[in-house]
């Protein structure tokens, strides 16, 4: 299958305004797939407990951090998300010389969630994910059917001070630290000769396969890709277009900049068609640890006609009911073997409302423009409020316990008025 998938971005000082790190990602998935936004509080576990991921179970740790996730509603993991320590992670599908057609194991999306639940820094997330990769491997269908759509994964992760890029090929991997400027990833390997961490057997394995002569400078992307990195830089690729869009605002990148990039259809970053942008995330993380981070999620397809809604980690957050999909427990066709014999209805409340509004926007130009204008106005008003918290902190955290849900309700009320 042609490698359709996502784009993930991070911008750090000095490329951003206001000593902030800006993280963004579009989750590009099958057009009929529902993406939900869910919250899980921090928890403690007994020794010997297991956690059931999408296809396999793994050993649980003594403590997991609170996380907010944007994920395809049929699986356990996540395409993207953040944790209470303001670590953000997004993953990308990558294909290379190593086959991705292995047994069911951990999906890259499972590794995103596990990394967020277990790591309080971006570098620690690299260690968590690579240790799990070594122990359990990666594999299994990445779509809610038996099409055999499989891939390896790259991950972009950030915290309050830096970002890390982690790229995998089977159990082998390389990681690069990003300490300033900006970085974006799409669906090809991008780590070249700057490798700050790596699998201890990565180079020897490549040499044993005849991919590297053992003498020339080691370039991860060149060695493990189908082709050299020239294809990544090819004119017209989403990677190249995303890089140009970041460069255009270099030194002044903000949350609004990142949202505009994720909404850009000419570049292909906002994807349409059989694969489309089914959910989007933008996070604003001040480098000052005394200030809160704001994580914006759409929970709906096509960011151009969606509202980015804010989430801030505080105590006593309630479940995000309006963006949580129905669950089917042991009767879920994903859990039964053979898997994927049917597809249940996974539409959450916001998705149902948004689906109707999207149809109106498509069918009635004037009415559609009015609705889109109301959505942008609501988003702008909300972001102005969030700027106060980002600049001055939160005096009454309990006030924000229902921030995301309240924003979703405002969005649905806007649809009703329109």
TrEMBL record:
GO MF terms held by the record: cysteine-type exopeptidase activity; dipeptidase activity
Any GO BP annotation: proteolysis
Source taxon at top rank: Eukaryota
Xref: Pfam families: Peptidase_C69
InterPro entries: Peptidase_C69
Assigned protein family: Belongs to the peptidase C69 family. Secernin subfamily.
Record's protein name: Secernin 3
Gene designation: SCRN3
């Amino acid at each position: 299958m042609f490698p359709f998938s996502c784009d993930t971005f991070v911008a750090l000082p000095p490329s951003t305004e206001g000593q902030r790190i800006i993280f963004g990602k579009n989750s590009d998935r099958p057009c009929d797939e529902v993406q939900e936004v869910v919250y899980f509080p921090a928890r403690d576990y007994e020794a010997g407990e297991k956690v059931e991921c999408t296809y396999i179970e793994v050993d649980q740790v003594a403590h997991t951090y609170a996380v907010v996730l944007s994920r395809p509603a049929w699986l356990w993991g996540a395409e993207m998300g953040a944790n209470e320590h303001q670590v953000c992670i997004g993953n990308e599908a990558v294909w290379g010389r190593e086959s991705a057609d292995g047994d069911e194991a951990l999906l890259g999306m499972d590794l995103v969630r596990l990394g967020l639940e277990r790591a309080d820094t971006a570098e620690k997330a690299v260690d968590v994910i690579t240790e799990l990769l070594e122990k359990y491997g990666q594999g299994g269908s990445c779509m809610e059917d038996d099409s055999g759509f499989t891939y390896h994964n790259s991950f972009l992760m950030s915290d309050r001070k830096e970002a890390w890029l982690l790229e995998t090929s089977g159990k082998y991997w390389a990681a690069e630290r990003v300490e300033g400027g900006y970085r974006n990833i799409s669906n090809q390997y991008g780590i070249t000769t700057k490798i700050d961490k790596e699998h201890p057997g990565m180079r020897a394995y490549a040499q044993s396969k005849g991919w590297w002569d053992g003498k020339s400078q080691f370039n991860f992307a060149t060695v493990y890709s189908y082709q050299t990195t020239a294809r990544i830089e090819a004119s017209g690729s989403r990677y190249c277009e995303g890089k140009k869009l970041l460069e255009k605002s270099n030194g002044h990148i903000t949350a609004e900049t990142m949202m505009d990039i994720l909404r850009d259809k000419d570049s292909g970053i906002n994807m349409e068609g059989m694969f489309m942008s089914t959910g989007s995330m933008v996070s604003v993380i001040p480098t000052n640890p005394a200030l809160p981070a704001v994580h914006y999620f759409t929970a709906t397809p096509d960011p151009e006609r969606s509202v980015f809604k804010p989430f801030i980690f505080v105590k006593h957050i309630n479940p995000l009911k309006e963006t949580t999909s129905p669950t089917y427990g042991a009767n879920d066709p994903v859990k039964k073997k053979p898997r994927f014999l049917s597809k249940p209805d996974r539409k959450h409340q916001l998705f149902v409302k948004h689906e109707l509004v999207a149809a109106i926007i498509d069918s009635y130009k004037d009415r559609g423009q009015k609705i889109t204008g109301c959505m942008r106005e609501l988003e702008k008003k909300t972001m102005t409020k969030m700027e106060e918290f980002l600049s001055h902190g939160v005096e009454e955290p309990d006030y924000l316990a229902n921030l995301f849900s309240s924003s979703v309700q405002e969005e649905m009320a806007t649809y009703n008025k329109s």
